[in-house]
Design goal:
InterPro entries: Thiamin_PyroP_enz_cen_dom, Thiamin_PyroP_enz_TPP-bd_dom, TPP-bd_CS, TPP_enz, TPP_enzyme_TPP-bd. The chain has 23 helices and 19 strands. With 554 residues, the protein is of the alpha/beta class.
Length: 554
């Protein structure tokens, strides 16, 4: 008799072929055969306390490793709980597969337990969503879903697998298990457009470049560094591209971006859309030449006219452009000394203006002091994660990761609750790295119970909560719109001692009210070797400039 294999074991074989080393999950009767297959294939199963965390962890794993992440959840509420994590990965262009359970095909439309139209729900927020119709097709469709994750700009896929399809056994020789099916997705860009970019660089006296998240997605750090250093192009970084250049690099700029984008004669936008973070393109000088480089054709020129668009892998395009420009007798770099000095002066002025706040001894603690202490505490091996509203907006101005790939934030969906999952994924994927996560107290509350998962799987990290007992980013808008007498409606939280919460769950915890105690508390958390929470009580009546300038309040 021929050997047989179940649907769950076919899933595991397909995941193994894809290089998946761990799945994030919350158990359910529809999906347990996948667990059994993972045991046989040597794939680790990390079970969390909420499906949102499982999906966020799969997203985070993809960002850290450059390989696709995978989450497995049960049908109905298990899948709907994971929707937020999938949507976040969709907006952040993160490749992951969510596998959801489903009632048996034999009970289709009969009202089986937890039956919902999952595929219809997931289709708008994924690159691929499908039902597996037969056990023989399980591995085939898993590979298809992963393949679609990498079509154009990366993103998530979804598969639902009915229970009887997953549990049934079929002859192994009847099941297709793809092993060699992936092709390179790296596109080098149109050669004529690259030559045009080289010409524009040669004539530019005041160029600036924004390196967006696709620089990290495509592991294009070296190409970006060679480009900006070789051609003397001042660089700004956002999203996961933060850290591409180390702090102190002559081409590393952070605080002068608005000035640069107003005064520049050439602006190159790499791997980031003209969305709300960019003022939909309106923050760029109307007289500057604008070049946009992106993996996705649909993003290029969206919301704002451009002078040149190049579709393809940012690393290959920047390398080709640097080579094309560098081979010319005059590539423009020699003329940019004054421009770089001009930007550095603006940068220095902005830093010195804010420095007293960063060193403030005020109590309650100024949020600038907290994020300053965190920035001073980071090492070259610290992965920094931001999960919150107002407090993370402060950190975006001050915190500078020391190495590429060492910054994580939710991305343009602005999702709260990613921090615990990202810390989980980062520490699991890179146990050699230190992981530090700054939470807002509101953000931590959403998924904080998975601190226990960190303890259970022995995943030490340093958690810092900027606690103002408020959803302060929203509170500011309410005060501005309706007046101070209505500023506290629906946005005020209890005074929770999260340091005690950490101890309750088996971790290290402390409460900090004096700014002088922040650094010693961080050191003790580092030395504890445990998951930790440092609960820092910050001034609830201080708002980040980014909060006060949000377009939603304009």
């Amino acid at each position: 008799m021929s050997e047989t294999i179940s649907g769950g074991h076919l899933v595991a074989k397909a995941l193994k072929a894809e290089g998946v080393e761990v799945i994030y999950t919350l158990c359910g009767g529809h999906i347990i055969d996948i667990y059994d297959g993972c045991v046989d294939e040597g794939i680790e199963v990390i079970d969390v306390r909420h499906e949102q965390v499982a999906a966020h962890a799969a997203d985070g794993y993809a960002r850290i490793t450059g390989k696709p992440g995978c989450a497995v959840v049960t049908a109905g509420p298990g899948t709907t709980d994971a929707v937020t994590g999938v949507a976040n990965a969709f907006r952040a262009e993160s490749p992951m597969l969510l596998i959801g359970g489903q009632g048996a095909l034999s009970q289709h439309k009969m009202g089986s337990l937890q039956d919902l139209p999952h595929v219809d729900m997931m289709a708008p927020i994924t690159k691929f969503a499908a039902t597996v119709p037969t056990t023989e097709r399980v591995a085939d469709l898993v590979s298809m879903a992963f393949r679609e994750c990498y079509h154009g700009a990366p993103g998530p896929s979804f598969l639902e697998i009915p229970r009887d399809v997953l549990d049934a056994k079929v002859p192994l020789d009847k099941a297709r298990i793809p092993k060699n099916y992936r092709a390179s997705t790296r596109q080098a860009g149109d050669p004529e457009s690259i030559e045009r970019l080289a010409d524009m660089l040669a004539h530019a006296e005041k160029p600036a470049i924004l390196l967006g998240s696709q620089v990290q997605t495509c592991r294009a750090t070296d190409a970006a560094i060679d480009f900006v250093r070789g051609l003397d192009v001042p660089a700004y970084m956002n999203g996961s591209a933060r850290g591409t250049l180390p702090p102190g690099d002559p081409m590393h700029f952070q605080l002068s971006r608005r000035y640069a984008f107003t005064e520049a004669d050439l602006i190159i936008i790499v791997g980031t859309p003209f969305d709300f973070r960019m003022g939909y393109g309106k923050r760029l000088s109307p007289t500057a030449k604008v070049v946009q480089i992106d993996l996705d054709y649909r993003t290029v020129g969206k919301n704002r006219d451009i002078d040149l668009g190049i579709v393809g892998d940012p690393g290959l395009i920047l390398s080709a452009a640097a080579q094309a420009a560098g081979g010319r007798v005059e590539n423009g770099a020699a003329r940019r000394k004054e421009w770089i000095e001009e930007l550095r002066a603006v940068e220095t002025q902005a830093y010195e203006k804010r420095l007293p706040r960063q060193l403030s001894d005020a109590q309650p603690i100024d949020p600038y002091r907290l994020v300053h202490e965190i920035n001073e505490f980071l090492t070259e091996d610290t992965i920094y994660i931001g999960d919150g509203g107002d407090i993370v907006t402060f950190s975006g101005q001050v915190v500078q990761p020391k190495s590429p790939g060492h910054w994580m934030d939710p991305g343009p969906l602005g999702t709260l609750g990613v921090g615990m999952a990202f810390a989980m994924a980062a520490k699991k994927a890179r146990p050699d790295k230190e992981v530090l996560c700054l939470f807002g107290d509101g953000a931590f509350s959403l998924t904080g119970w998975d601190f226990e998962t960190m303890v259970r799987f022995d995943l030490p990290f340093i958690g810092v909560i900027g606690n103002n007992s408020s959803m302060n980013q929203i509170r500011y808008g309410q005060a501005a719109k309706y007046g101070e007498d209505r500023a506290r409606v629906g946005n005020t939280l209890g005074d929770v001692r999260y340091g005690e919460f950490a101890k309750l769950l088996g971790g290290h915890g402390e409460e900090v009210r004096d700014p002088a105690d922040i650094r010693p508390a961080l050191e003790r958390a580092r030395e504890s070797g445990k998951p930790s929470l440092i609960n820092v009580w910050v001034d609830p009546d201080v708002y980040a400039p980014g909060t006060m300038n949000q377009t939603m309040y304009k």
